[in-house]
Automatic annotation (TrEMBL):
Keywords: ATP-binding, Nucleotide-binding. SMART domains: AAA. GO terms for molecular function: ATP binding. SUPFAM superfamilies: P-loop containing nucleoside triphosphate hydrolases. This is ATP-binding protein. Residues 24-342 form the AAA+ ATPase domain.
Protein backbone atom coordinates (compact mmCIF):
# COMPACT_ATOMS: atom_id res chain seq x y z
CA UNK A 1 0.00 0.00 0.00
CA UNK A 2 1.46 3.35 -1.06
CA UNK A 3 1.61 6.36 1.23
CA UNK A 4 0.13 9.62 -0.09
CA UNK A 5 0.20 13.09 1.40
CA UNK A 6 -2.11 15.96 0.52
CA UNK A 7 -0.59 18.91 -1.34
CA UNK A 8 -3.82 20.87 -1.78
CA UNK A 9 -6.87 20.82 -4.05
CA UNK A 10 -7.72 20.99 -7.74
CA UNK A 11 -10.20 23.54 -9.23
CA UNK A 12 -13.14 21.26 -8.36
CA UNK A 13 -12.11 21.12 -4.72
CA UNK A 14 -10.94 17.50 -4.89
CA UNK A 15 -7.79 16.60 -2.95
CA UNK A 16 -4.49 16.67 -4.84
CA UNK A 17 -2.32 13.94 -3.27
CA UNK A 18 1.29 13.07 -4.03
CA UNK A 19 2.53 9.50 -3.69
CA UNK A 20 5.47 9.72 -1.29
CA UNK A 21 6.98 6.34 -2.15
CA UNK A 22 6.80 7.10 -5.86
CA UNK A 23 8.34 10.51 -5.22
CA UNK A 24 11.32 8.89 -3.49
CA UNK A 25 11.93 6.85 -6.64
CA UNK A 26 11.31 9.51 -9.31
CA UNK A 27 12.43 12.92 -7.88
CA UNK A 28 10.73 16.32 -8.26
CA UNK A 29 11.40 19.65 -9.97
CA UNK A 30 9.57 22.80 -8.83
CA UNK A 31 9.71 25.98 -10.92
CA UNK A 32 8.21 29.41 -10.32
CA UNK A 33 9.13 33.07 -10.37
CA UNK A 34 9.72 34.93 -7.13
CA UNK A 35 6.34 35.36 -5.46
CA UNK A 36 4.69 32.40 -7.20
CA UNK A 37 4.46 30.34 -3.99
CA UNK A 38 7.39 28.02 -4.66
CA UNK A 39 8.71 28.12 -1.08
CA UNK A 40 5.17 27.70 0.23
CA UNK A 41 4.83 24.52 -1.84
CA UNK A 42 8.10 23.11 -0.49
CA UNK A 43 7.06 23.95 3.06
CA UNK A 44 3.71 22.18 2.60
CA UNK A 45 5.44 19.09 1.21
CA UNK A 46 7.97 19.03 4.04
CA UNK A 47 5.39 19.53 6.78
CA UNK A 48 3.08 16.80 5.49
CA UNK A 49 5.88 14.25 5.05
CA UNK A 50 7.95 15.09 8.16
CA UNK A 51 6.59 12.15 10.13
CA UNK A 52 7.28 9.61 7.39
CA UNK A 53 10.71 10.24 5.92
CA UNK A 54 14.05 11.82 6.82
CA UNK A 55 14.40 15.33 5.39
CA UNK A 56 17.60 17.16 4.44
CA UNK A 57 17.16 20.78 3.32
CA UNK A 58 19.82 22.92 1.63
CA UNK A 59 18.57 26.41 2.50
CA UNK A 60 20.51 29.35 0.98
CA UNK A 61 18.27 32.08 2.45
CA UNK A 62 17.34 30.72 5.88
CA UNK A 63 13.68 30.35 4.86
CA UNK A 64 13.16 26.90 6.37
CA UNK A 65 14.80 27.20 9.79
CA UNK A 66 11.33 27.70 11.32
CA UNK A 67 10.60 24.00 10.70
CA UNK A 68 12.64 23.28 13.81
CA UNK A 69 10.02 25.07 15.93
CA UNK A 70 7.29 22.52 15.14
CA UNK A 71 9.15 19.43 13.95
CA UNK A 72 12.28 17.46 14.83
CA UNK A 73 14.56 19.26 12.38
CA UNK A 74 17.99 20.38 13.56
CA UNK A 75 19.27 23.68 12.15
CA UNK A 76 22.98 23.70 11.20
CA UNK A 77 24.42 27.17 10.58
CA UNK A 78 27.09 26.38 8.01
CA UNK A 79 29.00 29.62 8.60
CA UNK A 80 30.20 28.32 11.97
CA UNK A 81 31.93 25.23 10.56
CA UNK A 82 34.82 24.40 8.30
CA UNK A 83 34.48 22.37 5.11
CA UNK A 84 35.77 19.22 6.80
CA UNK A 85 33.37 19.65 9.70
CA UNK A 86 30.43 20.09 7.33
CA UNK A 87 31.36 16.81 5.62
CA UNK A 88 31.57 15.15 9.03
CA UNK A 89 28.09 16.42 9.95
CA UNK A 90 26.72 15.04 6.66
CA UNK A 91 28.16 11.60 7.50
CA UNK A 92 26.43 11.61 10.88
CA UNK A 93 23.17 12.81 9.32
CA UNK A 94 23.10 9.70 7.12
CA UNK A 95 24.23 7.39 9.89
CA UNK A 96 21.75 8.57 12.53
CA UNK A 97 18.88 9.59 10.18
CA UNK A 98 18.44 13.09 11.60
CA UNK A 99 16.32 15.61 9.68
CA UNK A 100 18.25 18.86 9.31
CA UNK A 101 18.17 22.30 7.72
CA UNK A 102 21.60 23.32 6.41
CA UNK A 103 21.35 27.09 6.73
CA UNK A 104 23.70 28.84 4.28
CA UNK A 105 22.38 32.33 5.01
CA UNK A 106 25.11 34.93 5.43
CA UNK A 107 27.74 33.10 3.37
CA UNK A 108 29.17 34.49 0.16
CA UNK A 109 27.96 32.70 -2.98
CA UNK A 110 31.27 30.89 -3.51
CA UNK A 111 31.22 29.64 0.08
CA UNK A 112 27.59 28.49 -0.33
CA UNK A 113 28.52 26.43 -3.37
CA UNK A 114 31.57 24.88 -1.69
CA UNK A 115 29.59 24.08 1.45
CA UNK A 116 26.67 22.53 -0.43
CA UNK A 117 29.06 20.54 -2.60
CA UNK A 118 30.98 19.14 0.38
CA UNK A 119 27.76 18.28 2.20
CA UNK A 120 26.01 16.59 -0.74
CA UNK A 121 29.12 14.66 -1.76
CA UNK A 122 29.46 13.23 1.75
CA UNK A 123 25.78 12.23 1.78
CA UNK A 124 26.34 10.49 -1.52
CA UNK A 125 29.47 8.65 -0.32
CA UNK A 126 27.80 7.02 2.69
CA UNK A 127 28.40 3.25 3.04
CA UNK A 128 25.73 0.90 1.67
CA UNK A 129 24.32 -0.01 5.08
CA UNK A 130 23.33 3.66 5.56
CA UNK A 131 21.34 4.00 2.32
CA UNK A 132 18.09 4.80 4.10
CA UNK A 133 15.41 6.78 2.17
CA UNK A 134 15.68 10.54 2.59
CA UNK A 135 14.27 13.61 0.84
CA UNK A 136 16.96 16.12 -0.13
CA UNK A 137 15.42 19.53 -0.85
CA UNK A 138 17.60 22.12 -2.60
CA UNK A 139 16.03 25.58 -2.84
CA UNK A 140 17.31 28.03 -5.49
CA UNK A 141 18.80 25.11 -7.41
CA UNK A 142 19.93 27.36 -10.28
CA UNK A 143 22.53 28.72 -7.86
CA UNK A 144 24.03 25.29 -7.11
CA UNK A 145 23.63 23.81 -10.61
CA UNK A 146 24.01 26.74 -13.03
CA UNK A 147 23.57 26.17 -16.75
CA UNK A 148 26.61 28.33 -17.50
CA UNK A 149 29.59 29.81 -15.69
CA UNK A 150 28.76 33.08 -13.97
CA UNK A 151 30.46 35.34 -11.49
CA UNK A 152 31.28 32.57 -9.03
CA UNK A 153 34.65 30.84 -8.89
CA UNK A 154 35.09 28.01 -11.37
CA UNK A 155 36.28 25.54 -8.72
CA UNK A 156 33.27 26.19 -6.46
CA UNK A 157 30.88 25.91 -9.42
CA UNK A 158 32.44 22.64 -10.56
CA UNK A 159 32.21 21.01 -7.12
CA UNK A 160 28.61 22.10 -6.56
CA UNK A 161 27.44 21.13 -10.06
CA UNK A 162 29.02 17.68 -9.75
CA UNK A 163 27.33 17.13 -6.37
CA UNK A 164 23.92 18.19 -7.75
CA UNK A 165 24.36 15.94 -10.78
CA UNK A 166 25.17 12.98 -8.52
CA UNK A 167 22.12 13.73 -6.38
CA UNK A 168 19.69 13.79 -9.30
CA UNK A 169 21.30 11.15 -11.54
CA UNK A 170 22.59 8.54 -9.11
CA UNK A 171 21.03 9.41 -5.76
CA UNK A 172 17.99 7.11 -6.09
CA UNK A 173 19.96 3.89 -5.55
CA UNK A 174 21.43 5.41 -2.41
CA UNK A 175 18.03 6.37 -1.04
CA UNK A 176 18.41 10.10 -1.79
CA UNK A 177 15.35 11.64 -3.46
CA UNK A 178 16.24 15.02 -4.92
CA UNK A 179 13.62 17.77 -4.79
CA UNK A 180 14.96 20.88 -6.47
CA UNK A 181 13.29 24.27 -6.80
CA UNK A 182 14.30 27.06 -9.16
CA UNK A 183 13.10 30.48 -10.26
CA UNK A 184 14.55 30.13 -13.75
CA UNK A 185 14.54 26.87 -15.68
CA UNK A 186 16.75 28.46 -18.32
CA UNK A 187 19.47 29.02 -15.69
CA UNK A 188 19.33 25.45 -14.36
CA UNK A 189 21.72 22.88 -15.83
CA UNK A 190 19.77 20.67 -18.24
CA UNK A 191 21.35 17.39 -17.13
CA UNK A 192 20.16 18.12 -13.58
CA UNK A 193 16.61 19.16 -14.52
CA UNK A 194 16.18 16.26 -16.95
CA UNK A 195 16.58 13.63 -14.22
CA UNK A 196 13.33 14.65 -12.50
CA UNK A 197 10.19 12.72 -13.47
CA UNK A 198 7.72 14.86 -11.50
CA UNK A 199 7.10 18.54 -12.18
CA UNK A 200 5.22 21.33 -10.44
CA UNK A 201 5.31 24.43 -12.64
CA UNK A 202 4.26 27.77 -11.20
CA UNK A 203 3.83 31.20 -12.70
CA UNK A 204 6.56 32.49 -14.99
CA UNK A 205 6.64 35.17 -17.67
CA UNK A 206 9.80 34.81 -19.74
CA UNK A 207 9.31 33.04 -23.07
CA UNK A 208 12.39 30.85 -22.68
CA UNK A 209 11.25 29.59 -19.26
CA UNK A 210 7.69 29.01 -20.45
CA UNK A 211 8.98 27.05 -23.45
CA UNK A 212 11.09 24.77 -21.25
CA UNK A 213 8.23 24.32 -18.79
CA UNK A 214 5.87 23.40 -21.63
CA UNK A 215 8.35 20.87 -22.97
CA UNK A 216 8.70 19.21 -19.57
CA UNK A 217 4.91 19.10 -19.13
CA UNK A 218 4.37 17.69 -22.62
CA UNK A 219 2.29 20.69 -23.67
CA UNK A 220 2.19 22.38 -27.03
CA UNK A 221 3.91 25.73 -27.28
CA UNK A 222 0.63 27.60 -27.72
CA UNK A 223 -0.64 26.05 -24.48
CA UNK A 224 2.34 27.43 -22.59
CA UNK A 225 0.66 30.84 -22.40
CA UNK A 226 -1.55 29.59 -19.57
CA UNK A 227 1.55 29.44 -17.33
CA UNK A 228 1.50 33.25 -17.31
CA UNK A 229 -2.10 33.21 -15.97
CA UNK A 230 -1.40 31.07 -12.91
CA UNK A 231 -2.14 32.69 -9.56
CA UNK A 232 0.13 32.69 -6.54
CA UNK A 233 0.05 29.20 -5.03
CA UNK A 234 -1.22 27.52 -8.23
CA UNK A 235 0.92 24.94 -10.01
CA UNK A 236 0.59 22.65 -13.01
CA UNK A 237 1.48 19.14 -11.82
CA UNK A 238 2.70 16.20 -13.89
CA UNK A 239 4.50 12.96 -13.09
CA UNK A 240 4.01 9.43 -11.78
CA UNK A 241 3.82 10.66 -8.18
CA UNK A 242 1.17 13.36 -8.84
CA UNK A 243 -0.73 12.99 -12.11
CA UNK A 244 -0.41 11.22 -15.46
CA UNK A 245 -1.69 14.33 -17.25
CA UNK A 246 -1.01 17.99 -16.46
CA UNK A 247 -3.28 18.95 -13.56
CA UNK A 248 -3.87 22.33 -11.97
CA UNK A 249 -3.62 22.31 -8.17
CA UNK A 250 -3.69 24.95 -5.46
CA UNK A 251 -1.31 24.36 -2.57
CA UNK A 252 -2.89 24.04 0.86
CA UNK A 253 -2.06 25.98 4.03
CA UNK A 254 1.09 25.50 6.13
CA UNK A 255 1.75 25.56 9.87
CA UNK A 256 5.14 27.28 9.84
CA UNK A 257 6.28 30.47 8.16
CA UNK A 258 9.42 32.26 7.08
CA UNK A 259 11.27 34.61 9.41
CA UNK A 260 11.00 37.54 7.03
CA UNK A 261 7.78 37.51 5.06
CA UNK A 262 6.91 39.60 2.05
CA UNK A 263 6.68 43.38 1.93
CA UNK A 264 3.54 44.90 3.40
CA UNK A 265 2.24 48.33 2.41
CA UNK A 266 2.07 50.79 5.28
CA UNK A 267 1.17 54.50 5.27
CA UNK A 268 4.03 56.97 5.62
CA UNK A 269 4.29 58.75 8.99
CA UNK A 270 2.64 62.15 9.08
CA UNK A 271 5.15 64.91 9.81
CA UNK A 272 5.40 68.60 9.11
CA UNK A 273 8.14 70.02 6.91
CA UNK A 274 9.89 71.42 9.95
CA UNK A 275 9.87 68.01 11.70
CA UNK A 276 11.36 66.31 8.64
CA UNK A 277 14.03 69.01 8.47
CA UNK A 278 14.93 68.47 12.13
CA UNK A 279 15.04 64.67 11.83
CA UNK A 280 17.49 64.78 8.95
CA UNK A 281 19.75 67.73 9.72
CA UNK A 282 19.62 68.65 13.41
CA UNK A 283 22.26 67.43 15.87
CA UNK A 284 24.69 66.38 13.14
CA UNK A 285 27.52 67.83 15.21
CA UNK A 286 27.01 65.03 17.73
CA UNK A 287 28.37 62.49 15.23
CA UNK A 288 31.88 63.83 14.51
CA UNK A 289 34.18 62.21 12.01
CA UNK A 290 36.57 59.85 13.75
CA UNK A 291 40.04 61.31 14.03
CA UNK A 292 43.27 59.43 14.36
CA UNK A 293 44.75 59.58 17.88
CA UNK A 294 47.60 62.05 18.25
CA UNK A 295 51.07 60.65 17.83
CA UNK A 296 52.91 60.09 21.13
CA UNK A 297 55.50 62.68 22.05
CA UNK A 298 58.97 61.58 21.00
CA UNK A 299 61.77 62.22 23.54
CA UNK A 300 64.37 64.66 22.29
CA UNK A 301 67.14 62.10 22.56
CA UNK A 302 65.29 59.77 20.16
CA UNK A 303 65.34 62.47 17.48
CA UNK A 304 69.13 62.32 17.47
CA UNK A 305 70.20 59.46 15.22
CA UNK A 306 74.03 59.51 14.94
CA UNK A 307 75.57 58.23 11.77
CA UNK A 308 77.77 55.09 11.91
CA UNK A 309 80.93 57.26 11.97
CA UNK A 310 79.61 59.07 15.01
CA UNK A 311 78.91 55.71 16.71
CA UNK A 312 82.51 54.66 16.01
CA UNK A 313 83.79 57.90 17.44
CA UNK A 314 81.68 57.46 20.56
CA UNK A 315 83.05 53.93 20.98
CA UNK A 316 86.64 55.21 21.30
CA UNK A 317 85.95 56.66 24.72
CA UNK A 318 84.31 54.14 27.02
CA UNK A 319 83.56 55.62 30.42
CA UNK A 320 82.72 53.36 33.26
CA UNK A 321 79.21 52.08 32.64
CA UNK A 322 76.41 50.70 34.82
CA UNK A 323 76.71 47.39 36.65
CA UNK A 324 74.99 44.16 35.51
CA UNK A 325 71.70 44.79 37.34
CA UNK A 326 71.46 48.29 35.95
CA UNK A 327 72.25 46.97 32.45
CA UNK A 328 69.45 44.41 32.76
CA UNK A 329 67.04 47.15 33.83
CA UNK A 330 68.16 49.37 30.93
CA UNK A 331 67.72 46.48 28.51
CA UNK A 332 64.17 45.74 29.72
CA UNK A 333 63.27 49.42 29.53
CA UNK A 334 64.54 49.76 25.96
CA UNK A 335 62.81 46.56 24.86
CA UNK A 336 59.52 47.88 26.27
CA UNK A 337 60.00 51.10 24.29
CA UNK A 338 60.73 49.21 21.09
CA UNK A 339 57.60 47.07 21.50
CA UNK A 340 55.50 50.25 21.58
CA UNK A 341 57.39 51.86 18.70
CA UNK A 342 55.34 51.31 15.53
CA UNK A 343 58.32 52.32 13.41
CA UNK A 344 60.37 49.49 14.90
CA UNK A 345 57.88 46.91 13.61
CA UNK A 346 58.74 47.72 10.00
CA UNK A 347 62.53 47.28 10.32
CA UNK A 348 64.61 44.15 9.95
CA UNK A 349 66.68 42.42 12.60
CA UNK A 350 70.00 44.15 11.86
CA UNK A 351 68.45 47.63 11.90
CA UNK A 352 66.60 46.84 15.12
CA UNK A 353 69.78 45.69 16.83
CA UNK A 354 71.61 48.83 15.73
CA UNK A 355 68.76 50.92 17.17
CA UNK A 356 68.96 48.90 20.40
CA UNK A 357 72.71 49.49 20.64
CA UNK A 358 72.25 53.24 20.12
CA UNK A 359 69.58 53.50 22.80
CA UNK A 360 71.80 51.58 25.22
CA UNK A 361 74.71 54.00 24.62
CA UNK A 362 72.41 57.00 25.11
CA UNK A 363 71.63 55.60 28.57
CA UNK A 364 75.27 55.28 29.50
CA UNK A 365 76.04 51.66 28.52
CA UNK A 366 79.42 51.41 26.83
CA UNK A 367 78.25 48.41 24.78
CA UNK A 368 74.93 46.57 24.25
CA UNK A 369 74.21 44.23 27.16
CA UNK A 370 72.79 41.63 24.72
CA UNK A 371 74.35 40.01 21.69
CA UNK A 372 72.39 40.07 18.44
CA UNK A 373 70.96 36.56 18.89
CA UNK A 374 69.99 37.14 22.51
CA UNK A 375 68.45 40.49 21.56
CA UNK A 376 66.23 38.90 18.89
CA UNK A 377 64.99 36.35 21.42
CA UNK A 378 64.42 38.96 24.14
CA UNK A 379 62.50 41.22 21.72
CA UNK A 380 60.28 38.31 20.66
CA UNK A 381 59.47 37.58 24.32
CA UNK A 382 58.78 41.25 25.00
CA UNK A 383 56.43 41.55 22.03
CA UNK A 384 54.50 38.55 23.33
CA UNK A 385 54.32 40.15 26.79
CA UNK A 386 56.39 37.41 28.45
CA UNK A 387 58.59 38.42 31.36
CA UNK A 388 61.86 36.69 32.27
CA UNK A 389 60.18 34.95 35.21
CA UNK A 390 57.26 33.74 33.09
CA UNK A 391 59.65 32.43 30.46
CA UNK A 392 60.99 29.95 33.01
CA UNK A 393 57.60 28.88 34.40
CA UNK A 394 54.23 28.81 32.61
CA UNK A 395 55.75 29.76 29.24
CA UNK A 396 58.55 27.21 29.35
CA UNK A 397 56.65 24.71 27.17
CA UNK A 398 55.79 27.26 24.50
CA UNK A 399 59.35 28.58 24.40
CA UNK A 400 60.69 25.04 24.09
CA UNK A 401 58.44 24.60 21.04
CA UNK A 402 59.70 27.90 19.65
CA UNK A 403 63.30 26.72 20.04
CA UNK A 404 62.57 24.06 17.41
CA UNK A 405 61.92 26.81 14.86
CA UNK A 406 64.27 29.11 12.96
CA UNK A 407 65.19 32.17 15.04
CA UNK A 408 63.23 34.62 12.89
CA UNK A 409 59.97 32.70 13.48
CA UNK A 410 60.06 32.84 17.27
CA UNK A 411 58.30 36.20 17.55
CA UNK A 412 55.57 35.21 15.10
CA UNK A 413 54.99 31.92 16.93
CA UNK A 414 54.90 33.53 20.36
CA UNK A 415 52.31 36.06 19.19
CA UNK A 416 50.08 33.17 18.12
CA UNK A 417 50.86 31.35 21.37
CA UNK A 418 49.90 34.39 23.47
CA UNK A 419 46.48 34.57 21.76
CA UNK A 420 46.04 30.79 22.09
CA UNK A 421 46.96 30.77 25.79
CA UNK A 422 44.47 33.55 26.55
CA UNK A 423 41.80 32.17 24.12
CA UNK A 424 41.89 35.58 22.46
CA UNK A 425 40.84 36.10 18.82
CA UNK A 426 43.26 34.74 16.25
CA UNK A 427 45.81 37.42 15.22
CA UNK A 428 45.15 38.84 11.77
CA UNK A 429 47.67 38.30 9.02
CA UNK A 430 48.46 42.03 9.08
CA UNK A 431 49.41 41.79 12.79
CA UNK A 432 51.62 38.79 12.11
CA UNK A 433 53.28 40.62 9.21
CA UNK A 434 54.10 43.60 11.45
CA UNK A 435 55.60 41.36 14.12
CA UNK A 436 57.68 39.52 11.55
CA UNK A 437 58.82 42.83 10.04
CA UNK A 438 57.56 42.41 6.48
CA UNK A 439 54.96 43.94 4.21
CA UNK A 440 54.57 40.74 2.17
CA UNK A 441 51.38 39.05 3.31
CA UNK A 442 52.09 36.13 0.99
CA UNK A 443 55.33 35.48 2.82
CA UNK A 444 53.54 35.41 6.17
CA UNK A 445 50.97 32.96 4.80
CA UNK A 446 53.80 30.68 3.73
CA UNK A 447 55.39 30.97 7.18
CA UNK A 448 52.11 30.05 8.88
CA UNK A 449 51.87 27.10 6.49
CA UNK A 450 55.41 26.11 7.46
CA UNK A 451 54.49 26.15 11.17
CA UNK A 452 51.50 23.91 10.41
CA UNK A 453 53.59 21.56 8.28
CA UNK A 454 56.01 21.17 11.21
CA UNK A 455 53.13 20.15 13.47
CA UNK A 456 53.64 23.17 15.74
CA UNK A 457 50.20 24.66 15.06
CA UNK A 458 46.89 23.47 13.58
CA UNK A 459 44.59 25.88 11.76
CA UNK A 460 40.80 25.78 11.30
CA UNK A 461 38.81 28.03 8.95
CA UNK A 462 35.01 28.24 8.80
CA UNK A 463 32.94 29.19 5.74
CA UNK A 464 32.96 32.88 6.72
CA UNK A 465 36.73 32.83 6.36
CA UNK A 466 37.25 33.24 10.12
CA UNK A 467 40.30 31.39 11.37
CA UNK A 468 41.37 29.91 14.68
CA UNK A 469 44.77 28.40 15.44
CA UNK A 470 45.52 25.67 17.96
CA UNK A 471 48.81 24.47 19.46
CA UNK A 472 48.18 20.72 19.90
CA UNK A 473 51.17 19.93 22.14
CA UNK A 474 50.09 22.58 24.66
CA UNK A 475 46.32 22.16 24.35
CA UNK A 476 45.93 25.89 23.64
CA UNK A 477 43.69 27.42 20.97
CA UNK A 478 42.87 30.93 19.87
CA UNK A 479 39.32 32.16 19.51
CA UNK A 480 37.83 32.84 16.09
CA UNK A 481 38.96 35.96 14.27
CA UNK A 482 36.59 38.85 15.07
CA UNK A 483 36.34 39.67 11.37
CA UNK A 484 38.07 38.26 8.33
CA UNK A 485 41.15 40.41 7.77
CA UNK A 486 41.63 42.20 4.49
CA UNK A 487 44.70 42.88 2.47
CA UNK A 488 45.55 46.20 0.95
CA UNK A 489 43.79 45.05 -2.23
CA UNK A 490 40.57 44.32 -0.33
CA UNK A 491 40.86 40.53 -0.66
CA UNK A 492 40.50 38.14 2.26
CA UNK A 493 43.82 38.24 4.03
CA UNK A 494 44.00 34.54 4.88
CA UNK A 495 43.06 33.44 1.34
CA UNK A 496 45.77 31.26 -0.12
CA UNK A 497 44.52 30.94 -3.69
Amino acid sequence: MSLSIDLGTDPSGAPAPIDLEELLATRLLVQGNSGSGKSHLLRRLLEESAAWVQQIIIDPEGDFVSLAEHFDHLVVDAADYSEGEIAGIAARVREHRVSIVLNLEGLEVDAQLRCAGAFLNRLFDAPREQWFPAIVVVDEAQLFAPAAAGEVGEEARRVSLAAMTNLMCRGRKRGLAGIIATQRLAKLAKNVAAEASNFLMGRTFLDIDMARAADLLGMERRQAEQIRDLERGQFLALGPAVSRRPRLIRIGPVRTGTRGGGPVLAPLPTRTGEERQQLLFDMLEEEPIAKAPPAPAVPMEMLFRPRPMAIAAMATAEPAGPDDEALAAISEEILAEMVLDEDALSRGGAALYQDFALRCRMRGAARPPLAATAFARALALARAGISAAEAETEWAGAIALGDRLPEDLLGLFLMIARAARDSAPCPSIDDLARVYGTQSLGRVRRLVGYLEAQGIIATRTDFRGRRSIGIPELGWSTGIECEAGETRDGQAAWTTH
